[in-house]
Give the backbone structure.
Amino acid sequence: MNLRDWERLGDETLMSYKVFTARRSRRRSPRTGAEIGFFLIDTPDWVNVLPLTDDGRIVMIRQYRHGTERVSLEIPGGLIDPHETDPMAAARRELREETGYDADRLEPLGVMSPNPSMMTNKCHAYLATGCRRVGDLAMDPGEDIEVLTVPLADLDRLLREGAIDHAIVLATIAFWRARRAE
């Protein structure tokens, strides 16, 4: 089968919130010619940072997530602010705000589509090396974050046990591992 893009017939904004817009998009199937409606979420791009210290630890955060209604073990990350044009600068900002750490070096690991079935944004993943604590956290009002460092030797166990289950965190770790395997 030769897959082709679907023709966009029109869009209708349903709701607009601070961090996302929901819209109904009408498209035409190139295979059947049928007009089908889809619901899409437009949101700014995100960043995710895998921070490593010189003594072989990952700087991680624990925070409550309303979607799962539980505390999640993650790496720092968040929205690229509207005034930011450089995802790497946003990654450094998120690292500093959510952990109090800074890095000697940030390097891109890859770019992913968090949920291409309904979300239009990208997530830019970065590796931060030479991480060290430089100050206090600068949490947003809707955040309660606990910072911890985890030995790299514990990462596989945490993954096997399901202690880390946030999809874009798992994807960032996969990008990092693929780069290490080169």
Notes: The chain is about 20% helix and 45% strand. Residues 9 and 42 are 17 Å apart (CA to CA). The chain has a mean pLDDT of 96. The first strand starts at residue 7 and ends at 16.
